[in-house]
Amino acid sequence: MIENFSITNLANIKSLQIDNLSSINVFTGENATGKTMILSILYTLSKSLENFNRGNENKTFKEIISEKLYWVFQVNKLGDLVSKDREDKSKHFEIKATIDNQNLFITFGDSANKTVGNITEIVENRQENSIFIPAKEVLSLFSVIKTSRNRDNVFGFDDTYLDLVKALEQEPRKNYKYFIESKKILNNLINGKILYENGAWFFRKDRMKISIFSTAEGIKKIGIIDRLLANGYIQPDSIMFIDEPESFLHPRAVVDFLDIIALLAQNKIQIFIATHSYFVINKLMLVAKKDNIDIPIISLAKDNYVIDNLKDGLPQNSILDTLVTLYEDELDLAL
Amino acid sequence: MKIESEMKFITDDCTYIMEDDSFYKKMSSKYGTKDVDFIIKRDNKLLFIEAKKSSPKELEKYIDEIVTKFTDSLIIFIGILFDRKNTKSIIITEQMNQTGHLKKDIQFILIIKNAEKYHLIPIRTALNNKLRKLIQMFSIENNVFVMNESQAISKKILENPNI
Q1: Quick one: which of B4, B9, B52, B147 has the most CB atoms within 10 Å?
Q2: Nearest-CA distance from A334 to chain B in Å?
Q3: Same structural domain for residues A72 and A153?
Q4: Same domain, A63 and A159
Q5: Is pLDDT above 80 for A177?
Q6: Enclosing domain of residue A227
Q7: What total of structural domains would you count in chain A?
Q8: Interface residue ranges in chain A relative to chain B, Cβ cutoff 8 Å
Q9: What's the count of helices (H) and strands (E) in chain B, helices before strands?
Q10: Residue B107 Cα, gap to closest chain A Cα (Å)
Q11: Which of B14, B13, B17 has its CA nearest to residue B4?
Q12: How far lies A24's CA from each of A30, A97, A181, in Å?
């Protein structure tokens, strides 16, 4: 579990410190305020911890995280990730985090090329998998992602996509005891499941097998979660990073999808969500109240941020402000 | 001026308060008929206004009650303007008692004194859904609104305490 973190000078994010992270955590804000970036950097950290010392891997943690940063953010040099001030003076990026009770620290300057600077030297690896669910679906791009990144090693689809593709390839386990209830809800939601056969994805509904290219985006999105639960990639103590769960889903499906997310959180999976959606925020507020859990919501603006707890109700933020402004415009027209 | 749900409503010759009418009192006690707090003529509009002190605790019950108030009030008001025997008003002003008003745009407005602005939108959606039949019958599309005290002050439905 990621217990807390702080970031300094990462692209648009000058300074951010979040303590007391919970089982579900939400980032919201206007475009280009860094929501996805925060999810990506946290994913990079947790994934690097997993890859460290796994199997016969003999790279140092510094080597692993440097490589992961390069392939997740796909920058020419790592220093390009560092914020610059108006005078273009050099700064240092820094991230501190506590993950599974161990304190991590990474820093590098804007001249860093392919390797980070100072870093926590001794770390213990994480056993459980982390996964990043991007806003775009991956099933219909499956072979393109594999080819561009796995074989050709070219920029285009970052490592969050590649890792997801690899995770999805794993076959479902028989008699897998976890998440039976969640899988039932997921199957009911899309009325079928996705299958991987002979290198191609299908959606199976009753006896029909439909090509993934003719399958609705929303079904693909939900099908991905179903597959990751069925093949055991997501397990208790996993961390899920979900970018814009609302994309491609009808608000009703978003609400059902978040019920599953709440169920996963109850089963010790930590969730990080970046969203623009009123429905997502509103539904998570209800989850927080019903399950009596803290759900921190971090509303990011250009130069600052505000932390609220959805258990205390809907916070004031730009999404809700926009809704109110639109409604008041309508009132002005009518009265 | 009249106080309802702890809010000061601006009243004048273009305001009709149904609950002050004797026929309504009888109808209410005998049949349980419900009324809105104010019917106001403003420019080319008829506003049916209901006031509440706070947001709903039980949404469905709250919305059902308001829908009944809007529905009963609209039907009774039509009865008044057409001079029906059982809805003869002894208090309605000449300004309000004109059949021509039935050609005006009708707006249903719920004012909730202590509501957060964010809460108004879902309440309005629920109200719109429940009023769908009446909205269709009387062409009230896009004319159901829920506002809080400060918005009602800015729309000059309530007195401005700072003036």
Answers
A1: B147
A2: 7
A3: no
A4: no
A5: no
A6: 137-233
A7: 2
A8: 314, 320, 323-324, 327-328, 330-331, 334-335
A9: 5, 7
A10: 9
A11: B17
A12: 20, 17, 19
pLDDT in tens, B39-48: 999 999 999 9
Closest CA to A241 of A278, A206, A269: A269
Instruction: Please tell me the distance from the alpha carbon of residue B93 to that of residue B46, in angstroms, as a whole number.
Output: 14
Average pLDDT score over chain A: 90
Please tell me whether residues A246 and A98 are part of one structural domain.
yes
pLDDT band of A53, cuts 50, 70, 90: confident
Of B117, B145, B155, the CB nearest to A324: B117
Terminus-to-terminus CA distance in chain A, angstroms? Answer: 52
Q: Are residues A214 and A241 in the same domain?
A: no
Residue whose structure tokens are 């994805």: A201
State which of A233, A263, A281 marks the end of a domain: A233
**Domain residue ranges in chain B:** 2-154
Residue A88 confidence (pLDDT) = 60
More confident residue, A143 or B71: B71
Which residues of chain B are within 8 Å of residue A330 when distances are taken between CB atoms? 142
What is the pLDDT, as a whole number, of residue A141?
A: 85
Interface with A, mutate which of B43, B45, B117 (most A CBs under 10 A):
B117
pLDDT at site A87: 67
pLDDT tens by residue, A288-323: 999 999 999 999 988 889 999 999 988 877 788 888
